[in-house]
Amino acid sequence: MPAAPRPVNTGIARLAPSAIRRIGSLAAATPGCISLALGEPEFDTPDPVRAEAKAALDRGETHYAPNAGTPGLRRAISAYMADRGLAYAPDEVLVTLGATEAISSALLALLNPGDEVIIPAPAFVSYESVTRMNHAVPVRLDTAPCGFQIDEAALRALVTDATKAVVINSPNNPTGRLLSAASLDAVARVAAEFGLYVVSDDVYCRLVFDGECERFAARHPELRAQTVVVESFSKPWAMTGWRMGWIACAEPLMSQVAKAHQAAASSSVAFCMEAAERALAIDPAPMLETYRRRRDRVVAALDAMGLPVARPQGAFYAFPSIAGTGMGDEEFCERAVSEAGVGLVPGSSFGAPGHVRLSFCVSDGDLDLALERLAAFVS
Q: What class, spelled out in words, does domain 10-45+284-378 have in CATH?
């Protein structure tokens, strides 16, 4: 009789399945249900980008790409970031399999077991998951009392001898809110005082409705050695299925992140490199304008339903409070699928119970019908 298998990675075993995918699957299995659960633009990737990929396949670019990405794409990303006030040389840029792999490789390079990562919540689910996978400890900073901004005193109160990094995201998923200059400065002061790394997830920085998105790395170049910038092609250019993103950071950190990336993914996809380079030259403004109009309709509809919501300033999400309905967010989302035919994500999966996330990157017709159904359900 063989011995029982030894335990798997406890960091993995403790993880719960993604609520986003769970609700998405529940919605897909419910006839006629409209899912507002995924951050998946309904737009197709722009034609010039697709044409580049087809041409690359015709040229036979089906072999391994360089681990860090082609020199041409890294130069293009470097120039693109420089135009936005971020100074990173091509050899300080690494092309990844989307932002999720970028975050994973960055935290893999940074964390030792027992390290702590401060995550302002609500926050994208991967930050906590990847931290736990590395046998490190996620520490939530509740931003709701400050209007989804970062209070310096609250941040300082969470710093311990084990704290290694702070992860920030602006515009934020799931709230759509921008971090203010005061929030960025608070993070910078604490990071400088305690030698913390700042992982700045900027994947929605091209999708901003109100004002400018101030970037942490541009505002605080004095912390260059401690800053990791994550970006992605997925959201601004409707390239979610391409799995193309990048990391930018200074040496000596980049050499460590590159080793983590090489072990986890080897490289990104060769025939997508020139297509991604082409995308950088395309202005996503037409898609952004569509999202802006939808944002306005969603906020008006939620106000009419009596669901309080902080007005999204970017991305394509709204994060209303459902506390007044008397239901928990899990119950609300499950009943919304079964009784209203609308898929939403529980706020508890982002570290903010009592809220739900609504994605408005679906077609106008689906969005309007889903809002009608949701209004009837709430009433």
A: alpha beta
